[in-house]
Specification:
This protein is an alpha+beta fold and 398 residues long. The protein folds into two domains: 174 residues, FAD/NAD(P)-binding domain (3-Layer(bba) Sandwich); 157 residues, D-Amino Acid Oxidase, Chain A, domain 2, CATH 3.30.9. The chain contains nine helices and 21 strands. Strands 1, 2, 9, 10, 11, 12, 19 and 20 form an eight-stranded mixed sheet that branches. Strands 6-7-5-15-16-17-14-18 form an eight-stranded mixed sheet, sandwiched between helices. Strands 3-8-4 form a three-stranded antiparallel sheet. Helix 1 packs parallel to helix 5, helix 1 crosses helix 9 and helix 2 packs across helix 9. The radius of gyration is 21 Å and the shape is globular. The N and C termini lie far apart (44 Å). 50% of the residues are buried. The site of flavin-adenine dinucleotide has 39 residues, from helix 1, strand 3, strand 14 and strand 18.
Length: 398
């Protein structure tokens, strides 16, 4: 293995693996370094599936990126024998007048003329009889969305990247990085590599890795339980029931529950999207059930809204989110070392964009710019105030 590359990608998970593929496909000599053997159960992509929605409650700025991602996922599906996407549809519902996430989902669909049907709670129950929701809820349904097989996606990008000549250093954690004016040196557990350019996409470890190149990012890793339950298969299988996002107003503790229909008898999968306390990704307790709320919160939700999917617990896993203060991603070039790009802080809703983020990272790395509008993800936005850059007179972004 030669030790100098055009580009080194630190973290070959959701974003990094896609970036590695789009770089290698364009003839770039790329090395992907990962602490584990992706796809794996230690990062943010574990747990079989991820929802892809086009109408977007987190903000309509995401819609063009979601649509481009879908094109790239469909393209990936054609290039691999792995199953990538299931068009099960996506629905969202919440209390009328108190569900900003649902309201923005509907508005973003309208703004981009997406195929989004609007429902009352009563009409949604008729359409999906497994639901038990108040008649006056506000709801929408998007037939073209669905879910991605997250681990298959990463495996498919890995196979294709390898096919195009990408090299890998697996089970090889990066220990240190030195950034020079026009190159980098990456010290790993097993070796030392150099490159002209660097991509940092280390998921919940991105804060630790970015600190090695002088960036103190306001990233908060957190522990996220998700579980599968036995369900009435005729009501909740993927041909009869879509993915779902449900906004529960609860004062300051507003939560969004999300989930997936059953397929192949796996049961209904449910999680609770909320930004809980910070953990250290190296020492987090990864045992499902070690906190009584791991199952408890999800069970309460199912009993209330989908009682016929609240059967025996089939499986539970723990995954990791890494959030930013404003919930938007970080995708930008390093403010001092423009040959370093960073993609981090995907705040629990990033997987669906991994394909387009890979494309963006390849463009930023090769030409220094991208065709996509990523202005809401920039490092110097007001929502990231407090980001510090070592050795730079712009010590704090304003
Ligand atoms: C339970 C759960 C449910 C979710 N549901 C959805 C959903 O429905 N839809 C959606 O769009 N998104 C969803 N997300 C969010 C999405 O999965 C993440 O935003 C996305 O996976 C983040 O990708 P990443 O590349 O940043 O992290 P990862 O995929 O974790 O990749 C980071 C990689 O960096 C590597 N790494 C770390 N440190 C080092 C080091 N020192 N040296 C080398 N390599 C290193 C890791 O091993 C890992 O492979 C969910 C997340 C969770 C946890």
């Amino acid at each position: 293995m030669t030790n100098h590359y055009d580009v080194i990608v630190v973290g070959a998970g959701s974003m990094g693996m896609a970036a590695g593929y789009y770089l290698a496909r364009q003839g770039v000599k790329v090395l992907l370094v990962d602490a584990f053997d992706p796809p794996h159960d230690q990062g943010s992509h574990y747990g079989d599936t991820r929802i892809i929605r086009h109408a977007y409650g987190e903000g309509r700025e995401y819609v063009p990126l979601a649509l481009r991602s879908q094109v790239l996922w469909n393209d990936l599906e054609k290039k691999t024998h792995h199953k990538i996407f299931m068009q099960a549809g996506a629905m969202g519902f919440g209390e009328k007048g108190d569900a900003p996430f649902i309201d923005e989902g509907i508005a973003s669909g309208k703004a981009y003329n997406l195929d989004v049907e609007r429902f009352t709670g009563a009409a949604l129950k008729e359409r999906f009889p497994g639901l038990q929701i108040p008649d006056n809820y506000d709801a929408f349904y998007e037939p073209n969305s669905g879910f991605l097989f997250s681990e298959n996606c990463i495996q498919a990008y890995r196979d294709l990247a390898e096919h195009h000549g990408a090299e890998f250093s697996i089970n090889d954690p990066v220990r240190d990085i030195e950034a020079y004016d026009d190159s980098v040196k990456v010290m790993t557990e097993k070796s030392i590599f150099t490159a002209d350019k660097l991509v940092i996409s280390a998921g919940s470890w991105s804060g630790k890795i970015a600190a090695k190149v002088g960036l103190d990012l306001p990233l908060v890793p957190s522990r996220q339980p998700v579980a599968w339950f036995e369900a009435n298969e005729s009501l909740f299988n993927a041909n009869a029931f879509p993915t779902f996002m449900v906004e529960i107003p609860n004062g300051e503790n507003r939560a969004i529950y999300y989930g997936f229909p059953s397929f192949g008898g796996c049961g209904v999968k449910v999680g609770r999207h909320e930004y809980v306390d910070a953990i250290d990704p190296d020492t987090m307790n990864g045992e499902f059930g070690s906190n009584e709320n791991d199952e408890g919160h999800i069970r309460e939700f199912l009993d209330k809204f989908m009682p016929k999917a609240s059967g025996a617990l089939k499986k539970g896993v723990i995954c990791k989110y890494t959030r930013t203060p404003d919930g938007h991603f970080i995708i930008d070039k390093h403010p001092v070392h423009a040959h370093i790009s960073i993609a981090a802080g995907f705040s629990g809703h990033g997987f669906k964009f991994a394909s387009v983020v890979g494309e963006i990272l390849s463009q930023l790395t090769i030409s220094g710019r991208t065709d996509h509008d990523i202005s809401i993800f920039r490092l110097n936005r007001p929502g990231l105030m407090g980001t510090k850059v070592a050795g730079n007179e712009r010590k704090y972004f304003k």
